[in-house]
Amino acid sequence: MSGGKQSPRQKMIGMMYLVLTALLALNISKEIIGAFITIDSGLVTTNKNFAEKNEMTYTAFEKAKKNDEKKVAPIYDLAMKAREKSKKMTDLITTIRGEMVAHSAGVDPKVGDTLRLTLLDKPDDYDTPTHFMIGDDPSNVTGKAKELEAALITYFDEMTKLVPGNEQVAFKARIKPSIPAPIYSAENEKMINWAWYNFYHAPIVASIAQLDRIVNDVKNAEGDVINSLFASISANDFKFDALSAKVIAPTSYVFSGDKYTADILVVASSTTQKPVVWLGKFDSIKQPDGSYKPLPGTNIDSTSVKVDGGVGKYIMDATAVGLQQWSGLIRVRKPDGMWDNYPFKGEYMVAAPSAAVFLEKMNVFYIGVDNPISISAGGVAPSDLQPSLTGGTLRSSGKPGSYIVTVAGGTEATLNVNAKTSGGNKSMGTFKFRVKRVPDPVAYVGNLKADGMMTKAELQAQSGVFARMDNFDFDLKFQVMSFVMSMSINGVFVEKKSTGPGITPEMKSMLAGAKPGNKVFFEQVTVKGPDGTFRKIPGVNIKVK
What we know:
The protein is built from eleven helices and 27 strands. It is of the alpha+beta class. Helix 3 (69-105) runs antiparallel to helix 9.
């Protein structure tokens, strides 16, 4: 990071950590921990995609080298150096992650390297990662962050030297936000060091997400280098079996309010060419003249994507939440003046800048009532989630990602979450929840529950016995079906029964004769719950003032 102009990705990450760090000061809630876990899940997926795309480029290098060993070998060797340096850098980050988790969770470093964040016993632990990464004095970093910072500076410097000379200035500008450097802190009103800014007083889930974000930068730089090297090879010199359009984005998971950025290029295109990018939906069938027909109703946008150095830059405001899809053509002019057209498709996920609360009320499902829940998965649109429940029923509430659970009995319910992906259905996890009976309500006469005192006038003004839920998150109604009122009249103990919540005329006549010191008992209270069951609950004893 640097103190200069921030890229859209920096703004996204900066906003995320500002919001979450501010909330950390108020105590680390499950929602904040869940937010970091969701963010890290998206980063891990993005890093995996980067690695797969880079391997595709290395495979293309192998094919090009077989076609022309003499010409391609020197460029191939540079690409292999980029691969080696990136592996060394990611191995260091992986080792640091494993050791940090091992210190916090008390496990072997090899286990810590692969331990899922959801399995951490202390996901809000910030003392261990701070001490491990920073040391005892933030102003004098002695922890692993010092080693990591030095390694990153060396890595980006060495990767810059691998890029063709005429592209190094542009490459430096692209990777500048990733190179460790002091950054201005508005909170502290001064420049602070890179290590403190990224790892000081951050819980372990945030520190791990930060390390995975750094892996993202490393993989991005690796892809930029090898694509630049491969682009220096002219496609006309080799017999490729296919040429295809590529979409390379720093991340496919962004927050609403930020910008999604992607580079669009044709692999092995000439650096002297200036392709044209058309955005729109096109038929997948290639016409005899090499063109593609726009789909009916498509408006072709040929000006939004600006091309510089053979690379088109696609920038779009991320305003709508959910899966966003886009497509178009890259058009490259051939030596004969005709155009070659390469169709491409891209997609990215826009998430709201907060994690959904999984259970909206409590950590149990209650029998006989509607239990609202929200279900989300990093990088998956709510419409692509396929949840199912055993031990109860699950239905949509009408809002994306929001559901209603009802259970009729038992002690446990299991929620299975699957997601529709391009490779078919994928399990996103299985979650078990306790099933409990709704607590008993409390009987009230006026504002009194259990034992209390009233004047005779106050007592005569009461209309009946009512049941309320005390200290319970659900707005449930219990109906009083019957109760018995009793009191001593002239030394004789008299009791009357009501078949509803109201005080009967006979009871009112009894209360009219009450004297100071008399006790009136409202007992044997029977209530009916929202699930249709009947319960006996304690009554109310009132002494006349």
